[in-house]
Structures are given as structure tokens and as C-alpha cells.
Amino acid sequence: MHCIGFGSLANLSNRFVKVITKSVFFRLLFITMNSKNMKYQLSICIGILLGLFSSLSSAFAGEIWVSPHGNDLNTGTRQAPVLTLTQALKQAREWRRLSDPAIADGIHICLENGAYPLSEPIFLRPEDSGTADSPTIIRGMGEEASVLHGGMSITRWKKQGKLWVADVPEFNGYPLDFRQLWINGKKAIRARDVSDFEKMYRILSNDPVNEILWVPTAAVKKILKAPRPEMVLHEMWCVAYLRIKSIEVHGDSAAVRFHQPESRIQFAHPWPRPMVTTDGHNSAFYLTNAKELLDEPGEWFHDIYSRKVYYYPRSGEDMSRAEVIVPALETLVRVEGTLDRPVENIRFDNLTFGYTTWMRPSLKGHVPLQAGMYLTDAYKLRPQMIRDYRNHKLDNQGWLGRPAAAVQIHAGHFIDFLDCSFEHLGSTALDYKMGTYGGKVEGCLFRDIAGNGLVAGSFSPAGHETHYPYDPADRRELCTHLQVMNNYFTDVTNEDWGCLAICAGYVADINIEHNEICEVSYSGISLGWGWTQTVNCMRNNRVHANLIHHYAKHMYDVAGIYTLGAQPKSYLTENCVHSIYSPGYAHDPNHWFYLYTDEGSSFITVKDNWTESEKFLQNANGPGNVWENNGPMVSDSIRRNAGLTEKYKYLIKKADR
Question: Which pTM does this prediction carry?
């Protein structure tokens, strides 16, 4: 099977092929017409021409083959494939640099089935760019997966009581650390104090002056001598990952202090904050990353000092035969251009991106503001800031960082992902960061992802205070004209609970259509950023005919579809939202919605959306919003039409494999 079939040969545009073919044809015809045995000579002529076309097809098809069994010293043909995608891209770059005839109809990099372990991210730069007529297509071949793989295998397990233990290898000459582990493709649980989150302990009080959280002594008694435990703290619409520095027991209460820098940020930022209430809804938390907590099947613990990993097998797991993968990379693919020289016309087709981690929480903690975007600095304002354009007074400041992504695009135009899978990932799956134009994400599966599924656009540059309107003088910085269609998101946000399936920040002309989203910890789709009704760079966005169900597994202040900020000429239409979870540890059991236009949302039309009831919220909105015909009275045809179109419903079965 070729990436380009024989029929594409007829479309070859380079003159060499045409001239040579025509010349050979007329010479052979002349010989044939002057031959005594015309029929015999004609058959020879046709055979020669077919052979010529066959050889030209091989020479000019623009194919570079990659195989897990290849060799980077090979030529990249199907018979002699290279080993790595990096080498294939280098060869393609050289073809373009030298204007090789092979690029006429585009370059097809064909990855045979199998795993492609990476020691560093694949890097695509402006020199890798294709054109509209000659794109670069990176394609997995066949029905079995071609996997760009950021993990390492753990082998030679030995039984140790109820547990099994193995040595952790080095990665690139350095001791490996990680926050995830998979057994036979199923995510194992980093050892924690509760298997049922409904049984989480709750904090007793919060002391921001002394940077102490007070908790029940019973909650921490197992980890008093543990060297590197962590607390995962439920805070309204986010969870914070806090590395515990010390625990002091005072009778039935214990004072917990945390390492820097997260301690300073955690106790200085006002939103979201740990809840201390009078009605039993104090913030819940769980503890993790201590061998003392390794007491349930399916749990694991990595001792970085001894470089050993411990695992408590589930029923039926044979550790002498199990495939055990731990992630070594945070990013698998970087598409990185500049505003003046973007990477253009690259398509990823039928590939799987798998096995990443994100180590910042282990090094600096993780204190998010919202949607997984972590605070690098934050504090209250006293007195509050008076803002213009009828925005209410502002009581806090915040500056943000962005989690790592398995695949990230910076300054890329028309970068497409078709029929791909993103799975077993330790943070964001796919991120169109900034400076992107066009691009299509269609027919993709997103599953088993720790953070956000798909992220698009800026969430304020690192030095830009996040409540200040973002409207860059150079609009090339924006993420615009992205199409996100017919994708299936399930079991995303399974570690960083405040994340989303689709999270779009400062974007324009984006279309999010006919996706299905389920089993998410927080909201399904978030559109917009900034907490301001001041007109900014956002406009002309569309969220249409998406199906969102079984959401809010862990967090409230939530909706199936959620918006922020002024977005002229933007539309939320004909979506279907139903089946919300009811976690007992939510900070406010009534603060959930099907549709939610939050602070500053302006000039947005919300129309013809089917929901189970009319439970909506319009909080501190600006002018120009239109709400029309939303709720259970909406036509049942809209409910049935939402979500994946018929062609893409196979993704649901694929996710269950």
C-alpha cells in the first residue's frame, strides 16, 4: 500500500516526467509502425511504457517510509525505510530545499504500524513547511496504531509480599522521575489515602498569615515520616497540588506547611480559595506520593532515592508478563515557527500520541487560577482597583503559566490533525498556543488525559496580568480560524480536575462543532478569557451542535458550556447538555449549570440549546448577550443531531477498546 496511489501519477506536474514519457512514447511508436510484426512490437512498447510509469511512480511519488525496524542510513523507500520520524523530516526538508521533483504533489511520510519511542520531542520548523498544493502529510499506515511514544518500559519485576518491585532505568543518562504509570494500557493509581473520593478528609481551618493548613491528625498520621508526600486540595473550581514540607501534630489537629514557591502563592491568592464554612463544606483533600499509602490493588509508588517502583497488582495481573510503561517526556511534538516565518501546511493523519508526564507539580507544586493555568504570582488588592468600561472593581491580581502539552503548535498555519488518537497523557493533549491560523482537528479520539484535552489561544502572556484585556497590536499573535469538529473526548481531566475537554482562551473565528464530551471532572467547553467586558481580541466564535454529558465528576461552579469576556458576534447554538454528576465534596452543591456566561461575557448569542432543565447562570455579564429558546422545550431533533455525525460515531467504540 502506497501513501500515493498509481492514479496520482497522472497529476504529476513536473516537466521532466512529461517530456521523457512523451519522447519515449513517440520513439517506440515509430519503431512499432515500421516493424514487420506490429502486434508483437506493440506489446513490447506497452510493457516498456508500463515499466517506465512504474519506475517514475516510485521515483516521484514523494513518499518517505518509516518503520520501527528501519535504519536511518536507509533511503526511506518502502523497501528500505528509515527508523525515525526525525530522519524522515530531515529528508523531506532537503527535498524542499533542493526543489526535488518528488515534492510536486506533496510529501507523504508514511509510518508503518508500531511504537516509535522518542528520546526528545519531534521538532517541526519553518523549513518543514509545505504549501497548499504540496503539503507535508505525516500518516500512520493501516488500521493498527502508529504510536509516537514518550514512555519507557519497566521490566524484571520481583515479588515482595503483596507488592511487586522493579528498578527504574535512567532516561538519557539521568535518573527518571514520573507521575503516571500504566499496566497493560490501563492507568494505575499513584498511591493515595482514599480509594473513594467521597471519603476524603476536610480541612479544619486556613491560616494564610503563617501559611498553614490545619487538618485532622487522623488524616496525616500515616505519612508523618514520609519524605515527599503531596496534598491535593479541592478549591471550588480547581485543585491545587501542594508538596508537604512539614507536619506538626497538636492533639486532634495537625499543622501542615508546604514547600515554596507554591506555599507563597497558595496563601496569597484569593481565588479560588480553600473553603471554611459553617455548613460542613470545608475543602476536601487527599494525600498521595507516600509508600505508606500503598495499600490497595492498582496503586503504585516511586521511591526516587532508591530508584525503585512498587506496585500492588490488580486481580488477574501477571507482573512477570505485564507491559508496564512510565512516561519520560512531557512533549512529543513541537511545531514551532515565528510570526514572520510560521510553519505551514502540515497534516498529521491516523497517528497515536501517547505516554507523557508533566513534572512541574513535583518540582514547584501546582496552584491554578482556572482551567489548569497555574499562577506564577498572585495577591489580593486593597483597596480594590477601579476599572473602566463599566467593569466592576477588581480585588486580585494574577500572572499565569501554561501546562506542558503532548503536541504544541506555536506560530503555525494550517496545521491539521485528522483521525488521530491522544491517549495516556500526563497533561494537555493538543495545544494551539499562539500565532496560529487555520488548522483542523477532526475525527480524533482524546482519552485518559490528566489535564485539558484541547487548548487553543492565549490565556494571557506570562507578563500580562490576566484580568487585563488582551488585544495585541499584532493580531498574528492570536489563534484564529481553527476548526474543531467531530472529536470524541472521554476520561480527560482525570488528575487536574479543574481542566476541560476543550479550552479556548483569547481566540477569534474559531468553530467548535459536533464534538462529543463525557466523563470530565469540570466543564465540557470553556470559551474566552479575561473576566472583563472590555472589547478585546475575541470575536466571531462559534460553538455548535456539541453533545456534553456526564460532566462535573469532581468540581462545581461548572457548566456544560462556559464563557468569559466580550466576544462580539459569537454564538452558542444547538448544543445538547445533560447528565451532571453530584460529588458530595463540591463546595456548593447547588452551584452547577448547563450553560453559564460568566464575568464580562458580552455580545454572545445563546440560542436553541437543548438541556434537561432551564438551569443557567449569567454572572456579571456585559451588554449585548441574547438568550433565546434554551431548555427542554427545544426541538428534539436538535438533541438528536448534537454530537458526532454518523461517519465519526465509530470513535465511541474505539475508546472502549
Answer: 0.92
